[in-house]
Amino acid sequence: MSTQSSYQQRRKPASEFESRDSYLENELSIMNFRRWRLHLPFRDFGIELEDLVPALAATIGKVVMVTAMAAAFASQFGLSAEFVAENVRYELLIAGVLFAVVFSALLNPNTNLAGTHGPMIPLIPLIAAAGGHPLALGIMVGVFGLLLSFSKGGSKLVTLSGEGVRGGLLIYLGAVGLIGQIGKLELWSEGIGMGFVSFGVIFATVVIYAYLARVQKRWLAIPLCSLLAGVVAYAMGTPFEFVTEPGLPPMSPTFWWGETTGWQLGWPDLNHFIAVIPFAILAVAMWSPDFLGHRVFQELNYPKKAKGVLMNVDDTMTVCSIRQIVGSILGGGNLASSWGTYMIPAAIAKRPIPGGALLTGVMCVLAAVLGYPMDLAMWEPVLRVALLVGVFLPLLEAGMQMVRDNQSAQSAGVCIFSCAFVNPVFGWALTMLLDNMGLIGDKKRSASLSFADRVVIPLIAFIVCVGSLALVGQLPGIPAIL
């Protein structure tokens, strides 16, 4: 029996199930996607109302993150705000049409959408100071990513990360992100002379989020909380206006990589490629913990028998790498990673990747062409609350769910400590090494591993991560080797 007819014959209408959750879990259980084959909506997967939520969250997150990255590059190269707006529009089209729809929806629905590599944003000034070129950086990230995905290194590292390591990583990322977003909202409200707005927005968000958790409708948190945040802020007198008019960005790579147009940098030479190598290695080294966190959300929220719809880490790395190379050559300023603002709400809503990916592509195109939705998504109350309830609170909750006993708590504690000492890449690599060697965590698990899995692979991962951090000056108190 083919997978197409299997899904069509095995699916049942929602009216035949006692609850909506039962219907959604059955949908997950009867789908079985095939790698690199054409999949069609309603033949191989359905599109449900719940798919709108991760699509909306992904679009908001995409506008926010690409704007932050493009603005960071623009400040280093002396580019205007108009450049940022047009490049964000361009990236929305690239991400929406070429990759959300073509790859994640139609060709390989086991691959998460290729989003934005947020942890690399603070490193952009270092990249520029080292003589890096955005196109050279993008190509090298893509090349190293393809090497890791083709060697199956990504899935291997995910497998070797124990539950305590995963839990600690998620708790750290969730807690730090939560505090950071609240702090940024408070700074913004104080900056406009209305410090009370942040309190009103956060208070309303906490109340509605708690209620949604109580009635088990957390998958509605992003649209409802974001809408409420905007309404509350506007009702309290916060100014807001639409400024980005409808239109299309320049579509030619020669415009973006011209000497006097676009990036105003021209095409890169060999020196540019050499300068970005350590940053590209670090970017790809950061992928594994990022991808790990997103797959964990599926495992926690999907039924156990829904194996056919789980995210394939290696294939996702392949798509992110291709997206990085293609997007950079076209002229985009994005650095790719697994799309967290899509995967996390999709997993909570118990939806597979492809249906929401199609809707994400449509929403990204609409936002880029219309312009005005970009203004709304970038408005501080909306974007901060969307990231709070769509990414960081779920990360924190998922991490706490994974710390189930004293052994996993020990590994989680060391992971959080190590992450706080340097950063999440260092914390994940060090704790995975210690956990697999049996120095912390579950010693029985360590004893069941082969020598390569227990020592060799985690040690290589640790050396690569720490070496990359040392090259670019990201180890505390140690100057950059470059």
TrEMBL record:
The keyword Membrane applies. This is DUF3360 family protein. Keywords: Membrane, Transmembrane, Transmembrane helix. The chain crosses the membrane at residues 52-78, 90-107, 127-148, 169-185, 191-212, 219-237, 270-288, 353-370, 382-400, 412-434, 454-472. It comes from the Bacteria.
